C-alpha cells in the first residue's frame, strides 16, 4: 500500500518534445578539484564529441570544488572561448555537494555528470541519456560490472568495487550493478524531488541517490561501458571506503526505521502499470501473499514459543491469550511494513487497533478450539494441544489476510470516492456531475495555466497548478514539458521548446550555409 503523495505530484514520464531550440536539452557537469592539467583536454574532447554526435543542444558545466591551483583560471578561459561551456565555483569541497548545487540550479531537462579523467568511453553518453529523453527511465548509470562491459583496471580496484557492490546488495537490497561509476544522468523533474532527500555531500552521494530512487520505485537504466582506469587518480581509497560504509549504515538505519519519506517519490512518477486500477486484477496479490506467508510462518513459530513459555506459569487459556496478543502486535507491525509496504509512523496506532480486532477473531477461534478439546478430553497431551492450535491458527491466518487486505491495509484511502474510472490528480477536486473532460486529441496544459506563448505568472508562493493526465493509450496528444518547473512550484520559466541542432556536416538544400 502506498500512502498519499506530497503536494509536489508530477505527471508521468513523457518523451521530451522537439520544437524550436531554446534551453539546452543536456547539461553535463564535470566536478573538479585541482585538475589544472586534465581539465582543458577533457572539456575540449567532450565538446568535440557532443558537437559531432549529440542531436540536441547541450551545455558543459565545470563545477570547481574549491580548487587551490590554477583550475579556476583554466575554467574561466574555457568558458570565454567555448559558448557551450559554463563555469561554476564552489568554496567547499565535495563531489556530491557540487552535483546537487549545479543540478538544482540547471534549467536543462536532462542532467548528467562524468569524471574529468574521462575513463568512460564517450560513445556511451548518448545511450545513457536517450532513455531519459524518451521518457522510458528516470535515472541512468554507466556500469563497469555488466557482462558486456570492457574494463581495464588493476586487481585492487576491481576487488574493492565488486566487494562494495556486494555489500550494497546484502545490506540495502540494491539491484543496480555499479554505484560508483562516474557516469550518470537524471531527469531534472526527478532531481528536483529526489536531491533534497540525499544527505551525503561526498563520494557516497551517488549510492545514496540510487538507493533512494530504487526504493521509491523509480526506473534506473544501466549502460555497459568501456572503462580504462586512471593510474593518476587522486581518490583516497581507504577514506572513501570508510565514508561509504558509514553512509551504508546511515541509509540502512533510516530505511529500517521508516524515517525517510519516500512516499512522495513513489507516485509523482507513477506511470507504473502496477499503480493503475484495473478491473478484476488485484494489485500486488501474489507479492502480498508471499510476504504474508513468510511473516505468518515466523509469527506462528514465535506464537508457539511464547505459548510454551507462558504454559509453564498458567493455564492453557491464559497462555494462549498472552502468546496470541504479543505475536499479533508483532505480526501486524511486520505485515504493515513488509507485506503491504506501509512506511513511516503515520496511522500505525490505528493499524494496531484494527489488528487487535483481527486478533480478537483469532483468539475466538483458537480459544474455542481449546475449549472443545478440553471438553472432549479432560487432560489432553501437550502435543495434541499444539496440533489443535496449529489447525485453528491456519483458519485464523486465512481470515487475517483477507481482513488485512480489504480493511486494515486497504488500498482505498480515507475520503476517496469512485469517479467512474477517472482518477483525479492528488490535490484536485472530483469532477462535478455532468462535467466534461478534454478530448484525448486535445492539447494538455496545466490547469489554469495559459496556452503556449502566453506569459507565466505567479511567484514562489503560488500553488503548483494541477495537470490533466491523458491515458497512455490515447494517441495524437500534444504535451508540453515545463522547463524549470519544480515540484514545489517555485520555478516558473516559460514553456521550453527543443529542436535537434543541425551540425555543419548536415546537408540541407534549403540551408543558406
From TrEMBL:
Q: Where is the composition biased (Polar residues)?
A: 449-459
Which Pfam family is one of this chain's hits?
Glycos_transf_2
Q: Where is this region: Disordered?
A: 415-513
* UniProt-listed Enzyme Commission number(s): 2.4.1.117
**What are the record's GO terms for cellular component?**
membrane
Keyword Mitochondrion tagged: no
Where composition is biased (Low complexity), the residues are 424-443
Q: For bias kind Basic and acidic residues, which ranges apply?
A: 503-513
Subcellular localization, per the record? Endoplasmic reticulum membrane; Membrane
Membrane topology type: Single-pass membrane protein; Multi-pass membrane protein
Q: Which family does it belong to?
A: Belongs to the glycosyltransferase 2 family.
The name under which this protein is listed is dolichyl-phosphate beta-glucosyltransferase
Amino acid at each position: 500500500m502506498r500512502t498519499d503523495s506530497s503536494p509536489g505530484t508530477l505527471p508521468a514520464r513523457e518523451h521530451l518534445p522537439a520544437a524550436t531550440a531554446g534551453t539546452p536539452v543536456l547539461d553535463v557537469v564535470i566536478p573538479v578539484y585541482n585538475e589544472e592539467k586534465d581539465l582543458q583536454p577533457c572539456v575540449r574532447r567532450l565538446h568535440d564529441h557532443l558537437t559531432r554526435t549529440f542531436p540536441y543542444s547541450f551545455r558543459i558545466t565545470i563545477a570547481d570544488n574549491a580548487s587551490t591551483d590554477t583550475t579556476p583560471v583554466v575554467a574561466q578561459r574555457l568558458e570565454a572561448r567555448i559558448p557551450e561551456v559554463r563555469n561554476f565555483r564552489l568554496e567547499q569541497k565535495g563531489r556530491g555537494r557540487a552535483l546537487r548545487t549545479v543540478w538544482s540550479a540547471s534549467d536543462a531537462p536532462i542532467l548528467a555528470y562524468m569524471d574529468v579523467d574521462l575513463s568512460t568511453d564517450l560513445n556511451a553518453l548518448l545511450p545513457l541519456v536517450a532513455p531519459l529523453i524518451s521518457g522510458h527511465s528516470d535515472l541512468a548509470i554507466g556500469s563497469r560490472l555488466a557482462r558486456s562491459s570492457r574494463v581495464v583496471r588493476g586487481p585492487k580496484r576491481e576487488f574493492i568495487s565488486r566487494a562494495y557492490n556486494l555489500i550494497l546488495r546484502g545490506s540495502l537490497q540494491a539491484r543496480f550493478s555499479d554505484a560508483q561509476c562516474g557516469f550518470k544522468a537524471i531527469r531534472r523533474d526527478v532531481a528536483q524531488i529526489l536531491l533534497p532527500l540525499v544527505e551525503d555531500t561526498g563520494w557516497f552521494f551517488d549510492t545514496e541517490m540510487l538507493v533512494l530512487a530504487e526504493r521509491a520505485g523509480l526506473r534506473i537504466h544501466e549502460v555497459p561501458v568501456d572503462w580504462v582506469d586512471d593510474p593518476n587518480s587522486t581518490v583516497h581509497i581507504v577514506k572513501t571506503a570508510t565514508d561509504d560504509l558509514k553512509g551504508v549504515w546511515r541509509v540502512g538505519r533510516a530505511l529500517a526505521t521508516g524515517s525517510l519519506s519516500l512516499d512522495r517519490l513513489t507516485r509523482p512518477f507513477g506511470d507504473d502499470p502496477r499503480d493503475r486500477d484495473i478491473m478484476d486484477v488485484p494489485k500486488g496479490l501474489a507479492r502480498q501473499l508471499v510476504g504474508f506467508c513468510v511473516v505468518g510462518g515466523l509469527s506462528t513459530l514465535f506464537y508457539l514459543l511464547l505459548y510454551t513459555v507462558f504454559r509453564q506459569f498458567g493455564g492453557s487459556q491464559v497462555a494462549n491469550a498472552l502468546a496470541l496478543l504479543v505475536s499479533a502486535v508483532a505480526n501486524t507491525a511486520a505485515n504493515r511494513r513488509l507485506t503491504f509496504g506501509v512506511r513511516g509512523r503515520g496511522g500505525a496506532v490505528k493499524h494496531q487497533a484494527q489488528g487487535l480486532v483481527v486478533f480478537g477473531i483469532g483468539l475466538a477461534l483458537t480459544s474455542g478450539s481449546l475449549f472443545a478439546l478440553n471438553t472432549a478430553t479432560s487432560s489432553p497431551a501437550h502435543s495434541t494441544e499444539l496440533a489443535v492450535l496449529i489447525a485453528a491458527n491456519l483458519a485464523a491466518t486465512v481470515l487475517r489476510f483477507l481482513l488485512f487486505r480489504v480493511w486494515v491495509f486497504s488500498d482505498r484511502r480515507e475520503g476517496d470516492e469512485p469517479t467512474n474510472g477517472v482518477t483525479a490528480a492528488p490535490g484536485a477536486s472530483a469532477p462535478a456531475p455532468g462535467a466534461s473532460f478534454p478530448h484525448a486529441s486535445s492539447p494538455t496544459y496545466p490547469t489554469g495555466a495559459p496556452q503556449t506563448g502566453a506569459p507565466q505568472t505567479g511567484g514562489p508562493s503560488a500553488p503548483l497548478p494541477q495537470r490533466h493526465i491523458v491515458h497512455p493509450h490515447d494517441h495524437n496528444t500534444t504535451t508540453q514539458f515545463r522547463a524549470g518547473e519544480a515540484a514545489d512550484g517555485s520555478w516558473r520559466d516559460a514553456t521550453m521548446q527543443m529542436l535537434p541542432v543541425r551540425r555543419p556536416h548536415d546537408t540541407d538544400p534549403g540551408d543558406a550555409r
